[in-house]
Specification:
Layout: E1 2-5, E2 11-15, H1 18-42, H2 44-64, H3 71-75, H4 85-90, H5 100-115, H6 118-121, H7 125-144, H8 162-169
Antiparallel strand pairs: 1-2
Length: about 170
Amino acid sequence: MLSEKCNEHVNLVERFTLLQKILMRLGFYGFMIVGAYGIYLESTLWALIYLGFVILGIEFGLSYFLCSHCPYPYRYSDCLFAPFWVFTKQYKFRPGPMSVLDKTFFILAMAGFVVIPQYWLLKNYAILILFWIFCLPTIASLPFFWCKRCQHTHCCFNSVRDELIRESELR
């Protein structure tokens, strides 16, 4: 992990390693694929509806409402979730705080990715377990690791201390 060294042994991430990107993308897209498959086993129509939600959720809930505010694709040409150019070609960088609308739709999209498949996954414990094998470490890594080191200071989940944010903005 390439990073800036800050006070008290906290590193703000500037770039992500290939392994970090592979693991995050495998987990993130993996649980959605497993969720869609679990729904498909019970209902093709609902699987298509979920896939539509995932596509719209990634395109707007993640890409526009969150990632267009994120400095990583625009300043560092890097991203954990997708190749950085996916965002830079679609949306202009929107520095500054996320609006209430941005935060709301981002949170609804992320929650929907996880919550929607549960009804169908509860009917097949093997698929449910596989879903959570992908989902739990991926989602847990956000607040417990990435959000503590993230330079996306306006994200609603960023947990970098204020003095470190000020210090990084001065650079």
